[in-house]
Known about the structure:
Number of strands: 8
Distance between the termini: 55 Å
Helix content: 40-55%
Bound molecules: dioxo(di-mu-sulfide)dimolybdenum
Amino acid sequence: MAELAEQEDRNGPAEVQLDIAGMTCASCVHHVEKALEKVPGVDGADVNLALEKARVTFDPAVVGTTDFVRAVSQAGYQVRMDSVSFAVEGLEEAPVRDRAERALKAVSGVIRVKSNAAKGTLSVETARGVTERGVLLAALQGAGLSATLNSDDGAVDARLQEAHQAKVRLAVSIFFTLPLWAAM
Length: 184
Ligand code: 9UX
């Protein structure tokens, strides 16, 4: 699924579906589409307000998910993320850390990788629905590292969810205030 979501085929266009938070009206859809289409290497963006999804077609030799996350955030919206953490053997050694971080950053949908040398853990933020944990684990193992999946970390997710809900509440309250206002 993750491999299909963002193909690493360097010879043709790729497509990725992102989870977008913060869109409350039809114009938001337009803003997000424009923001994505402005990014060099993007062929097209198709945003659905109800599903809160953006489907982006792009040239994987030129751009990737990290660029889309930045563009969406600069436009005032958020790409929903997932956070996952791994325990990696030998992570207290700098060369192991470098190797692990490089291996993970090469995986489609990976936005941020943070090592905790003292704890021997790596935390990875990925665009939601784009990268499967198994693929990340395989990337670490493929780089010759011994890694295991840690328990989930939902902190990032919760933060985004909160921001989104606050914006929806604001829009709803403005909407219900309008008739009162008109009456006055
Ligand atoms: Mo979106 Mo609509 O940021 O009035 S709420 S354009």
